[in-house]
Each structure stands twice: as structure tokens, then as C-alpha cells.
Amino acid sequence: MSTHFSNQGPLRIAFVASDADPAQEALARLTARYGQADPWEADVVVALGGDGLMLETLHSHLERGVPIYGMNRGSVGFLLNEHNEDRLQERIAAAQRVTLHPLKMRTTRRDGSTRDALAINEVSLLRQTRQAAKLRILIDGVERLEELICDGLLIATPAGSTAYNLSAHGPIVPLGAGVLALTPISPFRPRRWRGALLPHTVSVSFEILEADKRPVSAVADYTEVRDVVKVDVREDRSLGLTLLFDPDHTLEERILKEQFLP
After folding, report:
1. Planar angle of CA 87, 92, 98, nearest 5 degrees
2. What is the pTM of this model?
3. Which domains are assigned to the chain?
4. 69 beta partners
5. Which residues of the chain are under the pLDDT cut of 50?
6. Is 122 within any annotated ligand binding site?
7. Is 51 a catalytic residue?
């Protein structure tokens, strides 16, 4: 699906960049060439950096839902387009639109306090000490795994399935599959449990067993909450994040190609 901008004149573009020199140099050239709109009034935000900068930009504009077009000036750049500063207005107008829905994480800590956070890539639970974590997994209130002893566990969106999830030997999930990847990190017991694919409509709860002895932290993208005793995760369909990709290099194509890499 291509983008449709109501503004009939030149697009109002806001540029953001990481602190890396290549990103800052591109920022200077692009703002001199195309101008710099107020990010809160722009038709589109162009993010210059890597995937980390793209995630920060998406989080910063969650409420407004402005389309984000990334150009890779970082290291990986899986969520970004190739760097090309020519005909930027035309490229953005012709870009393909991808809508992502984040995961909403609600944590309960040992002191009883709660905290919510959103994740575009994944929610991960990680042991805080040398002791392995012990976790109980419930799906829609039904216990599915009584006890998982592991270094951690993560639940990833399709967009995040090629990131930490893939490094933890989890499956790559196509964008239109309608599923989330639940992947253990260095599981000890049950040793052969490799995770699960879950419908994106489910609510997932993780209960931390022996939390005093085996403390666990929960991380939604880059928001960390330590000493949790329970973590609830579900997809938040009320929020839609719009990414723009060049037609010849869409996110769906990248996810598909990733599955055939040696």
C-alpha cells in the first residue's frame, strides 16, 4: 500500500539523527537542501541513523502517529531504507506504508508497584544475578508451562523477530502472519522446549518463581524494570506505527530474504 499525503504542496519533512558522525553530516546536508519542519507539524519524519535511532523515533511519535521514513546512517539498518539524498520528496511520496502495533507490557514489582511500557521489537525477561530465572507461563489465563528454568525469555513482534529473537534462535515471523514469537533464552529445564508461536490476540502472563532468590528484570525495547514478580504482555491494537519503505526494498521482502540467508 503506497502512502497518501493530503498536503498538495511539498511535504513538510522533519529530520532527526543519531549522534554518530555519518548521521550528523547527513542531517546538515539534508536540512540545508530540504529545510527542517517542526516535528509536531511535519507530514513525515525522516530518521537518520540505525535501528536504535528508528526505535527511539517511533517511540517519540507514538501518540501522533506521523509516518517515519528511515535512512541508514548506522550499522544494521534493518528498519531503514538505503541512504540516498536525491529526490527525497518523490521517494517518500512513492514509499510503501507498513503499520506496526506495539506490545504493551505491564510489570508488577516485588514492592507491589506497577509500570507500563511499550515495545515495538520485543519484551524480554532476563535474570539479574548468577542464578537462573524460574518462570511460569500463562496464555489467556491458562497455565501452559509450569516452570521454565532459563537465562530469560522474550516475546517478539514480527518486526522484532529478526532482532534479539533471531539471536536467541527464535523463528522469523512474516509481517502478515498474525503471530508473536515466544522464545526462551538458554533454557535449562525443560531442555528441549524451543518456544512457541502465539496468535497476536492473546494475553501472555509471566510469573517469576522464587523472585527473592532469583530476581528478574523485564525490558520493553529499551525500558527496563527490575525486580519484577509478574509481567503481562499483549498487543496494543489501539496504537498504529507507520513506517515507510522504498517499493523495491520493503520490510516484508527483508523479512522473507532473512529466512534464506546462509
Report:
1. 155
2. 0.86
3. 13-101+240-258 (3.40.50.10330), 103-235 (2.60.200.30)
4. 46, 244
5. 1-2
6. yes
7. yes
